[in-house]
Write a structure and sequence with these properties.
Layout: H1 5-28, H2 39-53, H3 68-106, E1 112-114, E2 121-123, H4 124-139, H5 142-156, H6 171-178, H7 181-212, H8 218-237, H9 241-259
Antiparallel strand pairs: 1-2
Helix pairs in contact: 1-2, 1-3, 3-4, 3-5, 3-7, 3-9, 7-8
Length: 262
Amino acid sequence: MILTDAQIGAWLGQLLWPLFRIGSFFMVIPIIGTRLVSMRIRMGLALAVTVIVAPLLDPVPVVEALSVDAVFITLQQILIGSLLGFMFVMLMQLFVVAGQMIAMQMGLGFASMVDPANGVNVPVLSQIFLVGVTLVFLAMNGHLVMIEVIVESFRTWPVSATIVGPGSITLVHVWEMVMRVSWMFASALILSLPVITAVLIVNLSFGIMTRAAPQMNVFSLGFPIGMLFGLFIIWVSVPGLLPQFEKLSLETFLYLRELQGG
């Protein structure tokens, strides 16, 4: 049995190109792609999924390993995997942004802690929201949906020798996915609007009281009362976060389904 360079390249490409897309996806997505999961575990999961998915895919282009076409294919797979993972990152991070907005209005912006998943300082309220939605996301099998999205992407955008263009992901798709950031900030503002409005009413009330009684120290009274009132509103609105998270998750999943032509 004689093996040629083309045959060896085709066998390697059938496994290697999907590995680049799935590996970049696992490096970006929330939960699995955070610093809490070691690099070896992420690479092992990516390799295991690739071994299962690769036999089900269409034949990949046969190119030399050190050619320009191989570089283009690699960049294409990394781009697609990273963008799809970024969609799920925005779904989780919008609750962090909402917590930051609420904390700044309540005066809790200084109460921050290190986020072990990302290694940056975030308000404690944002960390509480992030832990809660992460548990809900796992409970609703969101991790399985993420794997389904990356597998279905091979049907919509098969492996080709072009980075962006016909037969692959288009510039329109890339632009739409990048501009999805505006949806994240708008959704975060909607989530934080009840608490922000309540704290604003408290501040306006103390402003009127200060005008009526100038001798009253608004800072010594308004700050703790505004904080307590904000915490009370958060406690009242916590049961409503689950329907909001389900709605936002459904919007993200439907957007990815429409993006992939499903």
